[in-house]
């Protein structure tokens, strides 16, 4: 940082690309840096990722760049900084004014007050799920149908590599104020849909993470935690039903034994049966269907008996 700042102040015209990732640049140092290159006609690319820039620094950048400073700049990376959705709105304004300037910023999952934007998170998870499904669809078009045969893209491998972080979203506890937010349940639904796609079609890659994270047991728990969220129930049900009827015996037995599916179905089925039909939780029908599926499988499987 110091060397770059010194060279910019000398205006020697030698700097075209600034690589300042993880240089502990805060808002004050950011201001010094950009004021030094305000009239530069040489700098085309600046990497400021993984620094300490806040929304105030983003406001400074937005004002400066929208005002026409550093016209040579065509790439700016500000990912991994301490910014919220307010800053991302400012970067969107820069993109609107400076058409040829590409601004890379982090995923917008924080509101301006620093709390989680669950609606935005749900949209992001749905986008990821769609991309994964499209990737798998291309594989199937090429005649590959079994998970073990699929040659996964770098994007899917990256997703799988960060699967534990995605699974941890299921453990998020929202405040009472957020419970009224329409997005409070959407992120769970989107996440379960994504996990279902990954579990069923990327099984060889995710086996270790799934077994160690107890994610299927967490999915079962969603029934009782959100007894009236019928859309969430349908999403979890589709995943469980697909596992029971799928080809992966490892995944099947993990659901039956490690996640204790028979015990769960017996317990919840007993609870639902004891209630009048109009007072049963909205997942009661799914419990009965899963129980019947397991019973039918039991008739043809001695080990399951």
Automatic annotation (TrEMBL):
It comes from the Eukaryota. SUPFAM superfamilies: RNI-like. GO terms for molecular function: protein phosphatase binding. Belongs to the SAPS family. This is Uncharacterized protein. It comes from Taxus chinensis. The lineage of its organism: Eukaryota, Viridiplantae, Streptophyta, Embryophyta, Tracheophyta.
